[in-house]
Amino acid sequence: MATVGACAGFGAFGAFVFALIRGSLTRKELMATLVESTRTTVMLFSILIGALMFGKFVNFTGMPGQLTDFVSQFGVQPTAVIVVICLIFIYVVLSMAMEQLSMILLTVPVYFPVVVGLGFDPHGFGVLVVAVVMIGLISTPVDMNLFVVTTRLPNVRLSSVFRGVWPFFFAQMVGLGLFIAFPSLSLWALRFVN
Cβ(118)–Cβ(81) under 8 Å? Predict the structure, then answer.
């Protein structure tokens, strides 16, 4: 067994070797690919380092505990807090304007202690975050998957892709609603992991 990162690295190396064997990769293209890969890696690591520093700062200030106490004093149901976090307050709105990895790294250190402090299952919250990120990947204006589709299909207009994604958007919103209404549903697949 191997980790996801090891499998991805092995796959990338295999594709690189395959391109070299076929002779379809020129020296100029190789340099351009390496430069672009370096830029992307530096950008992702910069986001990761900044988010880790932000998380440490948030924990140092004690803000998650104070936020948990603040929310607990109103006696609201954990489901209502999850709805506010996921739909209204942060995740769906933020996922429409921010790249998904940075959104997760910046918000989970703040909201995770609140959610766990209210008694919501941490694994269920993780599933919810992933579900909202999936919605963000196909919702405007920063819809990464839609931009990938339009670059791969140059003859298809962007407006057609936007219209075609609406059924999937609504289906994912229904799925998110089911995960919020029935938290045990989001944990059902974990029973088969062990």
Answer: yes
d(CA 87, CA 132): 9
- Per the CB < 8 A criterion, the answer to whether 97 and 142 are in contact is yes
Q: For residue 57, what are the CA distances in angstroms to 94, 99, 109, 129, 144?
A: 21, 21, 10, 22, 30
Contacts of 10 (CB under 8 A, 6+ apart): 2
Label residue 143 by pLDDT band (50, 70, 90).
Answer: low
70's tokens: 């603040």
Cβ distance 91 to 134 under 8 Å?
Answer: no
- ∠ Cα 103 40 101 (to 5°): 15
CA–CA dist 79, 76 (Å, integer): 8
**pLDDT (tens digit per residue) in 62-110:** 877 787 788 777 777 778 888 888 775 566 667 666 677 777 877 888 8
Do 162 and 140 contact (CB within 8 A), yes or no?
yes
Sign of CA dihedral 177, 182, 188, 191: positive
Q: Do 97 and 141 contact (CB within 8 A), yes or no?
A: yes
Distance separating alpha carbons of residues 80 and 91, to the nearest angstrom: 14
Q: Give the whole-angstrom CA distance, residue 194 versus residue 180.
A: 24
